Amino acid sequence: MAMVDTGQLRVHVQRMGPRDGSVPTATVVLVHGLLTDSLASYYFTFGPPFAAAGLDVIMFDLRGHGRSGRPASGYSLDDNIDDLEALLDTLAVTGPVHLVGNSYGGTIAFGYAARHPERAASVCLIESEPATASWSRNMDGVLQQVLHELAFNEDLALAWIADNRSHNTARLAKGAARLIRETTLAQDMRTSAVLTEDQIRAVHCPVLGVYGGDSELALLTPWLEKLLPDCRTVVLPGHEHSVLVEAAGVVGGHVLEQIQKTNAQIQAATAAAVR
Predict the structure, then answer these.
(1) Residue 182 falls within a domain, yes or no?
(2) What is the number of domains present in the chain?
(3) Percent of the chain's residues with pLDDT above 90
(4) 3-state class of 253 per DSSP?
(5) What domain range is 266 assigned to?
(6) For residue 149, is it within any domain?
(7) What CATH number should be reported for the domain holding residue 50?
(8) Domain membership flag for residue 184
(9) Fewer beta carbons within 10 angstroms: which end of the chain, N or C?
(10) What is the pLDDT of residue 160?
(11) What is the torsional sign of CA 88, 92, 98, 100?
(12) 142 CB contacts (<8 Å, ≥6 apart)?
C-alpha cells in the first residue's frame, strides 16, 4: 500500500508484481467504478492472479473514493483522466499500458486511450462504455436519482440497502452519500465532455468488452464491434452489472487472455521491425 502525491491529488495505490522477482511482461492498470467502488474490487478478484501471471499490476482509488483525497470539486470525466495521467507519470510508467475499467472506470480508461493512443496497449471495458451523449444522460439520471433519494430520507435508504443487500454495501453507500452530498461530483459529471464517434473510432488498440447477459449494456456489443477497428465482446449469460464480482474468475480469464495475446502481437511486431 502507498499514498502517492501526484501534485494534483494524494492517491491511494496498490501495486503488485511477480512474486519470483522476475521482470513483468507488461503493466496493467485497473480502474474501479463510481461511488460504492474502490480498488478493493480488484484486490480481492483478479489483481493478485494477474501479478502471479507475470504482470505489473497497478490499482488505485479514484479521487473521493477509498483512501484517496476527497477535494470539494474536480470530479468531471476529464479530471479523472487527468488523475490517471498524473499517477502514471508520477510512478514513471512510460511504456504503453493495458487499461482495465469496471463500469465508470472503463469510461475513464477509454478516455485515456483516446487522449493518449501511444500509451494504451489495450483497453478492457467491464460493463462499461465510452463517454457518449447517451452515456452522459444515463449517468446524470442515476446521480440525480441518488441525490433525490438522499434528500428524501438518507437513513431510510441506507436501512433498505442494509436489509436487502448487505451491511458492507450499506457502509459503502454511506460513504457514497457523503461524497455526492459534500462535493460537486453530480454537477461536474453533468458537464463532462463526451467523445464523438470519430474520436471513439480513432482508438486503434485492441478493445475487449465484457458484459453480463442480463445487463442493458450488453446491447452495446454490436455497436462497439462495428465502430472500433479492433474490438471483441463477451457476454456472460445470467449476470448483471456486477459481473466483475459475480464471475471474477471468468472475467479475469478473458481479460488476461486479451493482454497476453496483445503482448504477443506487440513482441512479434517489434521483432519484425528489428530485422
Answers:
(1) no
(2) 1
(3) 77
(4) helix
(5) 2-132+193-274
(6) no
(7) 3.40.50.1820
(8) no
(9) C
(10) 53
(11) negative
(12) none
